[in-house]
Amino acid sequence: GAAGALSAPAAASKWVRLNVGGTYFVSTRQTLCREPKSFLCRLCCQDGPELGSDKDETGAYLIDRDPTYFGPILNYLRHGKLIINKELAEEGVLEEAEFYNIASLVRLVKERIRDNENRTSQGPVKHVYRVLQCQEEELTQMVSTMSDGWKFEQLISIGSSYNYGNEDQAEFLCVVSRELNNSTNGIVKEPSEKAKV
């Protein structure tokens, strides 16, 4: 077939075997040289004595690094996207990206770590709850004028226990909540408007 047309050495040289910490990865020179300054590019494209790269008995380049984090590195070189499995620590990938000297990936991983810190520094989303007491006729007005970010949670009727001769006004406790957003870095600046009692 057409494959026969390729002379064996050329075909062989297109593919590169890497032995990363005991795990084999196979890739093409083209992929590994996507980042010209990277360690991988120097390793397989300038296979000169100056790198003195060790190969194992199968001819794979030996790299003494954690193979767990090599996957995202290689995939990034393949398609330019940063994809990290849930169970992998971004810090681990960052470590490797820095070792392999892939600047654009280092930037990406750092951004990802920063985003995650912003998202998780709060722990799970915190809510502030507030209970407002109001009379029946004030209810609709209060719900409609609720300030941004407040969500109506629950209405508790507490009956009209204080009826001082005026017409029966039902009293309600209105529970509202809002998410604490991260922009305040955990400092809750809450207006101290007291609910009417």
From TrEMBL:
Q: Which GO terms describe its cellular component?
A: Cul3-RING ubiquitin ligase complex; cytoplasm
Task: Name the encoding gene, please.
Answer: Kctd2
* Source organism: Pheucticus melanocephalus
Top-level taxon in the UniProt lineage: Eukaryota
Q: Which SUPFAM superfamilies does the protein's record reference?
A: POZ domain (SSF54695)
In this protein, which residues make up the domain named BTB? 14-117
Q: Which Pfam families match?
A: BTB_2
Enumerate the InterPro entries for this protein.
BTB/POZ_dom (IPR000210), SKP1/BTB/POZ_sf (IPR011333), T1-type_BTB (IPR003131)
Descriptive protein name: KCTD2 protein
Alphabetized GO MF terms? cullin family protein binding
User: Any one Gene Ontology biological process term?
Assistant: protein homooligomerization
